[in-house]
Amino acid sequence: MLGWFAHPIFVDGDYPATLKTQVEEKRKECPHSEPARSNRFSPMSPSTVPSQASNVWKKFSNQNKFERKLYHYGSFPQGFSWGVSSSAYQIEGGWNADGKMPSIWDTFTHNSTSIPGNADGNVSCDSYHRVDEDLYMLRALRVKSYRFSLSWSRIFPDGRHTSLNQKGVDYYNRLLDGLVAYNITPMVTLYYWDLPQALQDLGGWENADTINIFNEFCDFCFSTFGDRVKFWMTFNQPQTIAWSGYGLGQFPPNVKNPGTAPYRVAHNLIKAHAKAYHTYDDKYRKSQGGLVSIALNADWVEPKDVNVPRELMAADRALQFQLGWFAHPIFKNGDYPDAMKWQVGNKSELQTLSESRLPSFNEEEKSFIRGTADVFCINHYTTKIVHHATLRDLSETEEAWGLRRLLSWIKEEYGDPEIYITENGVATDTKTTYDDSARVFYYKTYVDEALKAHNLDGVNVKGYIATSLMDSFEWLNGYKVGFGFHHVDFTNPNLPRTPKYSAHFYYQVIKNNGFPMPEDEKMIYGHFCKDFIWNGKGLSIWDTFAHTPLRVFNDDNGDIACDSYNKIEEDVALLKQLKVTHYRFSISWPRVLPDGTTKQINEAGLNYYHRLVDALLAANIQPHVKLKFFLTASQKMLAGWENETIIDKFRDYADLIFSRLGHKVKFWITINDFRPGTLPYIVGHNLLKAHAEAWHLYNDKYRAKQKGIISITINSDWSEPRNPHKQEDIDAARRVVEVPFFFLIKFYWLPEFSPEEIKRVKGTYDYFGFNHYTTVLAFPYIMYLNCFNYHRGAGTIADRTWLDSGSSWLKVSPFGFRRILNFIKEEYGNPPIIITENGISERGPIDLNDVHRSYYYEKYINQVLKAYLLDDVNILGYTAWSLMDNLEWATGFSERFGLFYVNRSDPKLSRVAKTSVAVYSNIISCNGFPDPSSGPHECLNPEPEGKQNPLFFHTKQRITTVVLIDSLTPGR
Question: Which positions, given as ranges, span the membrane (predicted)?
Fold first, then answer.
């Protein structure tokens, strides 16, 4: 993108070799184309309705998007437990090896036709035979803990101790010994959904006898493995066992009886958990010193409207039926939540049942169950929005904020327990092998929400277990999706494992113990040079395009816009309030030359610009003028910039402006380049030649007398590789900055400069005018639409952790600003740089407290200061886009970039300062960022009216004015 225009002007007068090579390849392909707490919880009172934790919704639900999404940098405490998880049926294979007998999942998969590809766990990852490979992956990740489950039917094939299978015991001993040898803490789940089929034949979890049989199994595991296992979980997601297995009938044992079976099963599961807990407590805790808990699951549930009581109660009720169903008896008072008892009891009464479908605990059972967990283990994946009558899923990949709220809710509802996040992760299609950037974004956001909960909300988060170690059998999805940090090739008999991008990312998170503030994000304190140019970017005229049907949303057009044509004094007053030293605005070619030629000069139009320049100079504000250009109707009929004759017309237009305004204007811009999303190469070719002609005209005819400077403004995003560990992405990122191949182009050949034209174009600059807004992540991409029309070169996406704006393409990524400024320095010989546009938009309801814009300017300008002070980039000025909300091209007035709000419901179009005005004006007053540790800086004391001295551009000449001769669009 950048090199297309910059390379001819700033290097050798010709297009970059990479651009010419790729266009030539395209031409050949299309030859016919045209160019330490207590372990026991104290008894707690039952939940109110809504719960006492409802203040969590009130605290967080009114956050704006900026507050919700702002990334938090910091670290977890030393000793934080970082781990990964798996489960026996999903990875072990060896379904009948060495005496193992079937579980209910073996039976189900062997008889089911509903799983994609009729997949099963017979072999899966074959971990039963590949202990060393699994240990190698764990060591490479540098995890501190590994959560896995024991296969009940591998140890007790028929579910009972009398059927003990020593070879199964030996397998787990090998795994545990390896983990301990590598200082990886085993976190063992005793039951992860794979009940021995022999026990299911006796009624499974609907049979109360299973409680004692399960306790027998737990007792054996405690005694056999407890010397190495110090963290036990009895059940994984008992709510899933009860509801999916016995209510919906989706999971084995496929009982579809939602009215009563889930409640009976849950009742037995809670009793079984409590019994196993007491067995450990009575027989093993003193000698082994371990922890026992249960892994519960919960989505976060957000009320549709937190200010509506019944919506709040609906959200609370949804959480109580999912999480409170098991957490309330164990962590509160040994009984079910009142919300559950009331709801199920009332419906049971309506059904004329003699008793509630929800079983009850007697007082002895309540006492036995209460407090039977040493820590709180929670599995979480996504968030839901609840209406009093409906429950709607949100995308699990984008609503990470739900995790922070869930953790805070657990803290408030269950007495501030120690919390381990025992499952969290996201699946990708198994076609995604190692390049799983979506999973990286997921972990980057979700782990950060856990960090916020710990650091900002005081939640006692002790560990985070990511799901999962490797791709495996994913239950009803078979092998269609994978959650793993390692890709497993299930089509290869050797089942090779390959670390994904997410594995490298998670390794770094563990190494850093969170997200310490990166150097790129740290603020620097200091000042720009005393004659630094501080600019406020003004408005442009866009009459022709604004009247084109179907392209401007909401019928917005530029007829009135901000009416700056009639409000010079008001606009200048805003600039004085901002304390800018310069003001960059544009001149309209059709306002001055209605038919685009010098045959007819509109003196009234020229007089407007004289009046504006004079008003600025009178206010000690140097005009930094951008002449905004759009073709007249007659010029468009002649194909506009696709017609080479436009070059001479542009030269004549420039000649007129130089002659009329040059005695006041000392700073010229020929063309304000727009983002080349639809720009044919021939247009770019003619724009470059027109710029060169205008530059030579000024250099030869006006420079000596007027003593100004002249250049071009170029727009570019910065680009980073989507996967920094992949050379193809690194190359694509370079191409995005250098060559605009990631969009559809109109013609497929790159025009050639003649030797004379190369000499004419090369060196036609006095400074580098630069527009910048955002950063993208690049990857190789080719999509053929047909032989003559396709995407080629690179695709781009944004990091989901970057803050949004009112424009879909603009994500807040300050670090890229410094990097692209250094790129310009290194690539083009450290030219003088004037940043001619930079800013952020908003959408939706008017809010004068534009905290996101204040944040944007502070962070982006600080990156400019870093480039100036630390990297010695030759930066001479900065321009904010824009002074006020105005017509934003094809989006009309729906996107607002302004520092000042324009009230369009007021016939006078009154202007009102937003919060960002004070932020930007303070940066200007201080000429940078004074160190706050030194106390209040004198620059923050307002100077008396009229005392401000104008600042001037520091170069060979003393500059007072900038004029932009052509601006197709503001670089967006």
Answer: none
If one counts every other C-beta atom within 10 angstroms of the C-beta of residue 371, the result is: 22
Nearest-CA neighbor of 484 among 432, 448, 422? 432
635, two tokens: 């010029």
Q: Which residue has the tokens 């016919």?
A: 32
pLDDT tens string 4-53: 778 888 888 888 877 777 666 655 555 444 443 344 445 566 556 567 78
Instruction: Write down the H helix ranges in 45-146.
Output: 55-60, 65-69, 88-91, 104-111, 131-141
Residue 537 has a pLDDT of 65
3-state secondary structure at position 881: strand
3-state secondary structure 377-395: EEECCCEEEECCCCEEECC
Helix (H) or strand (E) holding 147: strand 145-149
Q: How far apart are CA 350 and CA 701, in angstroms?
A: 95
Q: Residue 918: pLDDT above 70?
A: yes
Strand extents, DSSP E, 506-621: 514-515, 526-527, 533-537, 582-585
CA pseudo-torsion sign 51, 55, 58, 60: negative
- Which pLDDT score, from 0 to 100, does residue 288 have? 98
CB atoms near residue 554 (< 10 Å):
9
SS3 of residue 159 by DSSP: coil
Is residue 74 classed exposed, middle or buried when 0-12, 13-18 and 19+ CB atoms within 10 A define those classes? middle
Alpha carbon distance 922, 858 (integer Å): 10
What's the rounded Cα separation, in Å, for the pair 694 and 814?
Answer: 34
Q: Single out the residue of 834, 498, 791 nearest to residue 669, CA to CA.
A: 834
CB-neighbour burial class of residue 363 (10 A; exposed 0-12, middle 13-18, buried 19+): exposed
Q: Which of 311, 837, 888, 895 is flagged as catalytic?
A: 837
CA distance 773 to 694: 27
Distance CA 358, CA 336 (A): 9
385-397 burial code (b ≥16 CB/10 A, e <16):
bbebeeeeeeebb
Cα–Cα distances in angstroms (integers) from residue 898 to residues 89, 890, 895, 915, in the given order: 58, 16, 9, 11
Map residue 354 onto helix, strand or coil: coil
Unique residue bearing structure tokens 């407890």 = 226
Bridge partners of 187, per DSSP, are 147
- Residue 445: both structure tokens together: 């956001």
Radius of gyration of the chain (CA): 34
Residues 563, 623: contact at Cβ < 8 Å? no
Q: Are 274 and 334 in contact (CB under 8 A)?
A: no
φ, ψ dihedrals at 189, nearest 5°: -95, 125
For helices 401-413 and 437-455, angle between their N-to-C axes, nearest 10 degrees: 30
- The encoded tokens of residue 799 equal 């990091």
Q: What is the mean pLDDT of the chain?
A: 87
For residue 314, which of 323, 305, 324 has the smallest C-alpha distance? 305
Cα–Cα dist 47/328, whole Å: 8
CATH numbers and ranges of domains, the chain: 2-33+521-964 (3.20.20.80), 74-516 (3.20.20.80)
Name the pTM for this structure.
0.89
Which residue in the block uniquely carries the two structure tokens 């670090």?
A: 815
Active site residue 837: yes
Torsion-angle region of 875 (φ positive above 0: left; ψ -120 to 50: alpha; else: beta): beta
**How far, in Å, CA of 193 to CA of 88, rounded?**
9
- d(CA 696, CA 813) in angstroms, rounded, equals 37
**pLDDT tens digits along 426-467:** 999 988 888 999 999 999 999 999 999 999 999 999 999 999
Report, as an integer, the average pLDDT of 910-920.
Answer: 94
d(CA 332, CA 373): 11
Beta carbons of 340 and 377 less than 8 angstroms apart: no
Q: For residue 835, which amino acid is it?
A: I
Catalytic residue chosen out of the listed positions 92, 423, 474, 842: 423
Residue 807 identity (one-letter amino acid): S
In 3D space, the residue among 143, 14, 23 whose CA is nearest the CA of residue 689 turns out to be 14
